[in-house]
Predict the structure.
Amino acid sequence: MAGDLGLWGIPVAIVGGAIRVSTPFLFVSLGEVLTERSGRINLGLEGTLVFGAMAGYGTAVLTGSAWAGVLVAALAGVVFGLVHGIICSLPKVNDIAVGIAMMLLGSGLAFYFGKPFIQPTAPDLPAIALGGWSDLPQVQAALNVNVLFLIGLALALVMAWMFRSTKVGLTLRVVGDSTDAARAMGLRPAVIRTLATAAGGAFAGVGGAYLSLYYPGSWNEAISSGQGLMAVALVIFARWNPVACFWAALLFGGAGALGPALQSVGVTKGYYLFYAAPYVLTLGVLIATSSTTRALSGAPGELSITK
Amino acid sequence: MTTFRSPFSRRGFLQGAAALTGATALGGLPFGARAQALTELTVGFIYVGPRDDFGYNQAHAEGAAAVKAMAGVTVVEEENVPETMDVQKSMESMINLDGAALIFPTSFGYFDPHILELAGKYPEVRFEHCGGMWTKDKHPMNVGSYFGYIGMGQYLNGVAAGHASKTKKIGFVAAKPIPQVLLNINSFLLGARSVDPTITCQVIFTGEWSLAVKEAEATNALCDAGCDVITCHVDGPKVVIETAAGRGSFVCGYHANQSALAPELYLTGAEWNWAAVYTKMVETTMAGGVIDNFVRGGLADGFIKMSPLGPAVPEAGRKQFEAVQAEILKGGFAAIKGPLKDNTGAEIAAAGQSFLETDPALESMSYLVEGVIGSTS
């Protein structure tokens, strides 16, 4: 049975927490990077995350397959992304306002359709045990890595490569940086942005499926507690760089594990303060990396918040 | 949802309520002739979370379902109502649009200021609040407080846990350090210590009633710290139970029966039995009577019940569990009794001193007993 790790429990818990909690942050922020690099903001990803969680869980309950759940969550995300993208392609539509509407719509629909799925238990997504080298059960538990986490890591690397060295990446960047330049090149910015938003929605849907199908692994209406919104903020923090998104997501996940971990080793005073750690961390890093001479570096030129 | 009601029953109720309030104010004089039975009654239930959360709200909703089955009663329900101005709006719409004359806003945080404000505005409506907030002479008489002595259920959970634990360390995922939660934590440990006085209980506060990811993290942290029996006091125990069982820990339930989530590892659970309480309150109201402002009950009164013991409880544990349960049912059993210190070393009870479950002092509990690893702030 588990021995007492003492203070060593804290780093183990933070690493474990980072791996367990970061995946939804990672998927939503990667989706948002894709969308924002094309010049549009989708604040609705919180709603997509919640709907994805519900759709994924519901599908897994009905079909008995967790992967079918992930697929349906991704498809639901595509639909939400398309709706957002198409509405925003209309003239004089503000993407932030539409995003907020989509966020409320997504959560509302998820609550409505999710009612019958609060009780049943769905199959979990598989995890890969990477902690077999250690005989400590705590380390083994911390290194139970879900497949979606690894897929997310691969996606971050592929996206970074895509933006840097492929035609698709170049197209997205042109559209995101200058509508006029894109038009001059014969591209259709509205279509490209809509497709990017749809793909971004699919990512967020998968993030939701991770929440309901792996960790914490059940569907209820408070499942997300704002993680989708935090992930959108995390994109700014990561300067629109997919690999930085990966590290930022890990950081947020690990910081979130700090509070319970400290309490479990006997540091019991002031847990509300430790629970604020991720937010304090964000503020700290943003201040440390801010510059008096440059605007937000890495921000796509057509983004409505930076224009 | 909106039902238009004839004014007669409403007026009848008002007269009845006025007469009863007068009677109570005069020190419980016998009811006058104007106190009359009702033929129909609309009852409102408000939940802070979803109705089927395997937890707090489900326990109340099961009570509401029992009320719904009563003749002449219309039940209106609203779920996912935050402890903000929203609950005032929900209550007002139940009163004005649905004609509710008896409302159960079931969440702890609904009381102050929300129920208090509306109780002043609608003196003819009866508000029944779950939790120990109502104080005589300080709060309006059309507000009542009811609660069950579920700490005894956690004590019994502890007895089962004490027999099942091999690491002699048990864990508790708690939402907020309010008296009811602290009493549950303390009772859980004291139950386990009645089996083996070396057992300790690690508590982790999540800070909120429903935060799935944090509850899962807290459960993992407890498992990492070597706790091998875990229980909780959060609104929906599903995440805690599933996460703990996934780590191979034994679990004790809370609020409702969660044995379906971990049939092999579920030891037992402390459940509410609101159906019995609510039907009685509604019967009283229908008969033209008035509900006591301070309603309490425990295992013996049918306010709480225990889940059937799971297969992991050893024979010795089964015997002791049943013996203690019988003792509690008989009455006069105290979980909190001297000599007892809190976990900072201050004395709670001297030798020979004990606090029965009915002792109001327990409703303002602010300490964790010796053996609980954690702090209330």
